[in-house]
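Hi F.,

I've been meaning to write this up properly since the lab meeting, where we talked about keeping a consistent format for the predictions we share between groups. The idea is simple: the sequence comes first, exactly as it goes in, then the structure tokens exactly as they come out, then a line or two of notes. No screenshots and no reformatting. I'm using this chain as the first example so we have something concrete to point to.
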Amino acid sequence: MEILLIRPFQLWANILLRIIPTTSGEKEAFTYYRDGMSAQSEGNYAEALQNYYEAMRLEIDPYDRSYILYNIGLIHTSNGEHTKALEYYFRALERNPFFAPKLLIIWQ
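Output, unedited:
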């Protein structure tokens, strides 16, 4: 079932990359983010983290960076590294206060 969800996401992501006017750096950052999401959904956390860290290096928009940080936090939560996860969640919140409701759900 997850594989069926990943393919449409990748298809739409590729279409968006072609039609939305963006710089090459933004496209590259999104490509790493997309690949990180795919790897994360398949349980390949090490690969996902590598892609997210590369996306963080390239992404300049604070709002977009907040989503990358949030996903890194989710991986650390899944790995039982709760202190490290909290660091990333707080960094995501600094850039995007709208993450507060999502984080409350995780902590319950």
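Notes:
The CA atoms of residues 5 and 100 lie 26 Å apart.
Confidence is low (pLDDT under 50) at residues 1-6.

If this format works for you, I'll send the rest the same way.

G.
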